[in-house]
Amino acid sequence: MTKGFLNQAYGARDAASTRDLYDNWAASYESELGENGYATPGRCAAALRAHMEDLNTPILDFGCGTGLSGLALRRAGFTTIDGLDLSADMLKQARAKDLYRDLRQIDPGDPLAHAPGTYGAITAIGVIGAGAAPISVFDTVMDALASGGRFVLSFNDHALEDPANEGKLQSYLDSGAARLLFKEYGDHIPGIDIKSNVYIIEKS
Question: What is the C-alpha separation between 14 and 110, in angstroms, rounded?
Answer without folding.
Answer: 15
